[in-house]
Write a structure and sequence with these properties.
The complex is a heterodimer. Chain A is of the alpha+beta class. The two termini of chain A are 56 Å apart. Chain A has 17 helices and 12 strands. In chain A, strands 1, 2, 3, 4, 5, 6, 7, 8, 9, 10, 11 and 12 form a 12-stranded antiparallel beta sheet that branches. Chain A folds into 3 domains: 199 residues, Hypothetical Protein Pfu-838710-001 (Beta Barrel); 150 residues, CHAD domain (Alpha solenoid); 152 residues, CHAD domain (Alpha solenoid), CATH 1.40.20. The N terminus of chain A is likely disordered. Chain B is α/β, with parallel strands linked by helices. Chain B has a single domain, classed as 3-Layer(aba) Sandwich (Rossmann fold), CATH 3.40.50.300. In chain B, 42% of the residues lie in helices and 13% in strands. Chain B is built from 12 helices and 7 strands. In chain B, a hairpin with a 5-residue loop joins strand 3 and strand 4. In chain B, helix 1 crosses helix 12. The longest helix of chain B has 17 residues. In chain B, 45% of the residues are buried. The mean pLDDT of chain B is 90. Classes of the chains: A alpha+beta, B alpha/beta. Chains A and B meet through loops of A and strand 3 of B. The structure holds adenosine-5'-diphosphate (ADP) and magnesium ion. The site of magnesium ion has 6 residues of chain B, from helix 1.
Chain lengths: 563, 252
């Protein structure tokens, strides 16, 4: 990974923007992975699982403790009360990536744990970091950063643990093995303060070095107890199961299961309702400015909504469609400026890295400008989203979908979709073929719009087509879209940067060095855009090759032939 | 891994008490600590309630057949492990003499444990022997408990002489007063005189305290059962001074 360190002038002194700088990694650095102790965080390999037991939920604890005391000499230490909070992003990226991050508070002792391919424990002071770049450069950060990316950590599940350490003693009253016994409760999500649900009692054998035989004896004895399970469920999974929460229940990805015979209206309603739910799930995060991804997901769902409105033809009343199309276009407008600023800030390190090292700090005023304007736009956006105009759109749209979903009739999905995809594809091929080296950039932008519509249609209705074929075509169009997207983004960014330069000049004193640095950046972006432009022909040819065209043609016509 | 020896030519001066309590405090401060009971009297082993090995261990160890790590016992305290005494240490000198590099045998034995422990504390038997020479070679510093008497002055001189002759100047010396009784005039005088002659004397000292004797009844470090007693606090001050002198990196 390249380094992007802020130079001596890189530290902001006024705290006005401080809070906001944290939303983006503006100080990207390479992250060293240290296998051993790093500044108080230490890493060990995964612990053995066969030391874990759990008590059947209905069985009481007292008989077990009595049996234990009868069998072994033991000493029970005073219980420890621990509050354990699992942290993850809104969309559970850490869990998806095979890791868990939790915080434990025991009295004044505060520690963070990472459990994945390795176990890391970090004695951390103060609040749990919100973004991966808020962590010090320790091993934990190097595990979390690639999974979490730009997302914020949120407290997801809160547990109350009562931990009893039971020591098994020999004749000398020397501890030879310990048992960690936990009585756990999970806080009811969105429940009243203090309302909890019980979890299974769990046991872990903690062997002591040099006393393997004693551990083995305890293990043997525990396995003879009928009311003990020889394993303990994963604590997080158990807690989620008990509260009925589903980790990763939020996903903006499309997974529809449609059939060609179903009503196109019903399918459209299902798509729109799903997209509306995505927007609604992200709304609080957008308003609270928790991280930039909320707005991103919100806007993707909104764009898909607009596309579906336009492309699934003949199912709703055209007048209503026109009305909602206009309302969602408005929503696109009011959310755009904040997203733009987010994009510049997220890509800020890449901008810096484009410049020669000595010039990088010249760009700092641009960063400050972006931060200030992101904040402004964000504030305005939050206000808009609270306003009656947006609230009314939500209600109207929800009511409309409920109403539409309640009656049948109209064309079947197969008819509508095959025709639409066929049409869009033909247009894409035709428009793309018409582009040569002298065509204005506008044509490429138009082509991109068309491709996006096609892509969304294919994604909405994947389930109508054989999987390998449709996946291949989606992959192809995504590749072309990425190319067109980069081409357009580079142009927009270069244009925007020039615009920012004028705005910065108007807003206050900015040194000529900053403008020169920005100028270099603009040049670099445009050069890269030119490169993309030159590569277009090859990209498009590969997309439009005969094999793909025939594949699509087969997909959209097979139904007619079969029936 | 840092290695400290607790040593004095004389017995009964507080070596074992020092080793046990400092090891406990070091482990509490977050260091991964190994205390090695090199005295066949096995007092350290007894304080930690571990049974001393009766036979065989040391012979195999020096011959390189057995891993030192296999003999380690976890203590009742987190981060603190013990290498128990082995009654056959009596013959250890003979065995060490057998080998090619007789004074670096402890070093060789400890090497493989380098990444498991941050600090090793050696509790040694009195007298100068091949074993103590091994201790001088492997340790970076010697903690020397010294009772403030004229006799102690002589034994300290003897030790320094020996270290000088053996060219062991690089071994740090950390003498400190042990079992000191301010009511005794001789103790008072020696506590004035000795640091003038030996400026490396630590300023913290361990008073004569019955709580330390009671460690034998409790079978626990006084820093565990009587943290805030006079003795407990004295050991804490001593430990803090050792941290400073040796620039030990303790967490938290
Ligand atoms: N500061 C002290 N005050 C009172 N008694 C002590 C003190 N230090 C050690 N003792 C006692 O003196 C005896 C010898 O101490 P020990 O630490 O075993 O010395 P060594 O290891 O040098 O032989 C033990 O009974 C111990 O309890
Ligand atoms: Mg002793």
């Amino acid at each position: 990974m390249r380094e992007c360190r802020s130079g001596p002038g890189g530290e902001r002194n006024d705290d006005s923007g401080q809070e906001f700088t944290k939303h983006y990694n503006l100080e990207r650095e390479s992250i060293p992975i240290e296998p051993t102790t790093v500044d108080g965080d230490c890493m060990t390999s995964a612990t053995a699982t066969d030391r874990h037991f759990s008590l059947a939920p209905s069985s009481p604890l007292a008989p077990f403790l009595a049996a234990l005391e009868e069998q072994f000499g033991c000493l029970v230490e005073p219980p420890q009360e621990v509050i354990r909070t699992y942290y993850d992003s809104f969309d559970w990226r850490l869990l998806d990536g095979g890791g868990r991050l939790w915080h434990e508070q025991e009295g004044r002792e505060s520690r963070l744990f990472w459990s994945g391919s390795v176990q890391i424990e970090w004695r951390q002071r103060g609040a749990v970091p919100r973004f991966s770049w808020d962590f010090p450069h320790n091993a934990m950060r190097s595990m979390i950063a690639p999974l979490l990316e730009m997302r914020a950590l949120l407290p997801q599940v809160k547990l109350h643990l009562t931990r009893h350490i039971i020591r098994i003693l020999d004749q000398e009253q020397k501890t030879v093995v310990r048992i960690c016994l936990e009585e756990n409760r999970v806080a009811v999500p969105h429940g009243e303060e203090g309302s909890v649900l019980p979890l299974a009692v769990r046991l872990e054998i903690l062997p002591l070095r040099g006393y393997q035989e004693e551990s083995a004896a305890l293990h043997r004895w525990l396995t003879t107890l009928p009311y003990l399970h020889k394993s303990a469920p994963d604590l997080l999974e158990e807690a989620l199961a008990v509260t009925g929460e589903v980790a990763g229940s939020y996903s903006p990805k499309l997974h529809f299961h449609f059939t060609p015979e179903m009503s196109a209206r019903q399918a459209a309603c299902e798509i729109h309702r799903f997209l509306l739910a995505v927007m609604e799930s992200n709304l609080a995060g957008v308003q609270g400015d928790i991280d930039s991804e909320f707005l991103h997901d919100f806007r993707v769902a909104m764009r898909r909504t607009r596309s579906a409105l336009g492309q699934i033809k003949g199912v709703f009343d055209p007048e209503r469609v026109a009305h909602f199309a206009q309302r969602f276009a408005w929503l696109g407008q009011i959310t755009g400026p904040t997203r733009d600023m987010d994009v510049y800030l997220l890509g800020y390190c890449d901008y810096r890295d484009r410049l020669p090292k000595p010039l990088r700090s010249d760009l700092d005023p641009l960063r400050d400008f972006l931060i200030a304007h992101q904040r402004q736009e964000q504030r305005q956006l939050a206000k808009q989203l609270e306003g009656s105009e947006f609230q009314q759109l939500l209600t109207e749209w929800r009511d409309f979908l409920t109403h539409e979903a309640s009656h049948d009739g109209g064309p079947t999905l197969g008819e509508v979709v095959d025709r639409r995809i066929d049409r869009l594809y033909r247009k894409v091929i035709k428009e793309g073929k018409a582009i040569n080296d002298h065509t204005p950039a506008e044509a490429l932008h138009e082509l991109r719009k068309r491709c996006k519509k096609l892509r969304y249609m294919m994604e909405f209705f994947q389930s109508l087509y054989p999987a390998p074929e449709i996946s291949r075509l989606i992959r192809e169009i995504k590749r072309l879209l990425d190319h067109l997207g980069e081409h357009q983004d580079l142009e927009v960014q270069a244009e925007k940067l020039r615009h920012f330069a004028h705005q910065m000049a108007a807003e206050g004193e900015v040194s000529a060095d900053t403008f020169l640095a920005m100028g270099m950046l603009v040049g670099d972006l445009l050069r890269q855009q030119q490169q993309k432009r030159e590569d277009f022909y090859q990209q498009f040819s590969s997309f439009a090759e005969r094999r793909n065209r025939r594949l699509l043609n087969d997909l959209v016509t097979q139904r007619g032939e079969l029936t | 891994m840092r290695v400290i020896g607790v040593y004095n030519i004389k017995g009964g001066v507080g070596k074992t008490s020092t080793a046990v309590n400092l090891a406990h405090l070091a482990a509490e401060s977050g260091l991964r600590v190994l205390i090695w009971d090199l005295d066949p009297q096995a007092a350290t082993t007894y304080y930690f309630r571990v049974q001393a090995k009766v036979r065989g261990g040391s012979k195999k160890m020096v011959r390189g057949k057995s891993e030192l790590g296999d003999l380690i016992k976890g203590s009742d305290y987190p981060n603190l492990d013990l290498l128990p005494a082995d009654f056959s240490y009596r013959k250890l000198d003979l065995l060490l003499d057998d080998s090619k590099h007789p004074t670096s045998q402890l070093s060789r034995l400890l090497d493989p444990l380098g990444c498991e422990f941050d600090l090793v504390i050696l509790d040694s038997p009195p007298s100068i022997s091949l074993l103590s020479e091994n201790i001088f070679h492997v340790a970076e510093a010697l903690l020397i408990p010294t009772i403030p008497t004229t006799l102690s002055l002589r034994t300290l001189e003897q030790l320094y002489d020996f270290l000088h002759k053996q060219q062991l100047q690089s071994l740090q010396r950390l003498p400190f007063f042990s079992m000191a009784d301010r009511r005794k005039t001789m103790h008072q005088e020696m506590m004035q005189q000795l640091p003038r002659k030996y400026p490396e004397f630590l300023t913290s000292w361990i008073p004569y305290a019955s709580d330390i004797e009671r460690m034998g009844i409790h079978r626990e470090p006084v820093t565990a059962f009587g943290r805030n007693t006079l003795a407990g606090r004295a050991y804490q001050r001593l430990w803090e001074e050792v941290i400073g002198r040796l620039r030990l990196r303790v967490k938290g």
